[in-house]
Write a structure and sequence with these properties.
3 helices, about 0% strand, about 80 residues, mainly alpha
C-alpha cells in the first residue's frame, strides 16, 4: 500500500517540477497536472529501467520521471489545443 502512496506523492512532486519547467496555461488545471505527473513518473521510471539506463532505486530515475511528465504534459496540451 505504501508503494502506491509513494508513487502518488512522488508523481505530485514530479508534476509540480514539470509544471515549473513548462509554464503556461494547462487546460485541466492543477489536478490534471498532478495526474500527468504521476503517469509521467510511472512511465518514465519504467521505461528507464526497461532500457537499462539505471537500476531500481537509482537517483537517475528522477530525471526520467521528469522527462516522462514533460512529454505527457506537452502531448496533453497539444491534443487539448487541437480539440478547442
Amino acid at each position: 500500500m505504501f508503494g502506491i502512496l509513494g508513487w502518488i506523492v512522488f508523481g505530485l512532486i514530479i508534476g509540480a517540477v514539470a509544471k515549473l519547467m513548462m509554464p503556461g496555461r494547462d487546460p485541466g488545471g492543477i489536478v490534471v497536472t498532478i495526474l500527468l505527473g504521476i503517469a509521467g513518473a510511472l512511465l518514465g521510471g519504467f521505461l528507464g529501467r526497461v532500457i537499462g539506463l539505471y537500476g531500481e532505486g537509482d537517483a537517475a530515475g528522477i530525471f526520467m520521471s521528469i522527462a516522462g511528465a514533460l512529454v505527457l504534459l506537452f502531448v496533453y496540451r497539444r491534443f487539448s489545443a487541437a480539440r478547442s
